[in-house]
Amino acid sequence: MSKQIQEQIASGKARLVAAPGPDGVPAPELRLPNAPRPQVESDRNFEIPTAFYGATAALYLAFLAVMFAGLATPGLVIPMAIFTIFVIAMFGVPAIWTRLRDNESAPMTVGAFRNAGIMTHTGRLSARDAGVQMLILPVLIVGWGMAAVTIAAIVS
User: Fold this and answer.
1) For the range 59-63, what are the long-range contacts, defined as Cβ-Cβ under 8 Å and sequence gap of 24 or more?
2) What is the pTM of this model?
C-alpha cells in the first residue's frame, strides 16, 4: 500500500535514502531533485474575492460609525478611535500579507466566484451560499448596532 509522506519528509520525521548497493551496504542519504521543498506554499488569499473582503471590512466600520453617531459622548471618542484602529489593522494586515513578494496566488474574481463557487472543508458552496455565510455576521452586527442605538434613543 502506498502512502503520501510529504509532511513527514518536510517535518524531518522521515528521510529519503537510496536503495542499498549490490554489497548490501546502505547508500548515503539522498536528496531527490523533485522531492518536496521544506517550506509550505499556501494560498494567502483564501479564494475570497476582494469585493467580499472589502464589504466585510466596510460593515464592521459601519457598525462603529452607527455606534459612534448614536452614542456620541466625549468619553467614547478614544475607545471608538481604538476600535476603529483595530478593525483597520484586522483587515489591513492580511491585505498587506496577500501582497508579499513570495505570494504567487491571486484572489478569485467575482465572475469566477459566481461561476465556480468555493471549496470548503465540507464541500463546494455556490457563490450565493458562500456570500451569505461570509456576510451574515457583519450584517447582523450592523443591525444589532442600529437596534441598540434606536432603543437608546427611545429610552432617553
Assistant:
1) 59/135, 59/138, 59/139, 59/141, 59/142, 60/87, 60/90, 60/91, 60/138, 60/141, 61/87, 61/88, 62/142, 63/138, 63/141, 63/142, 63/144, 63/145
2) 0.69
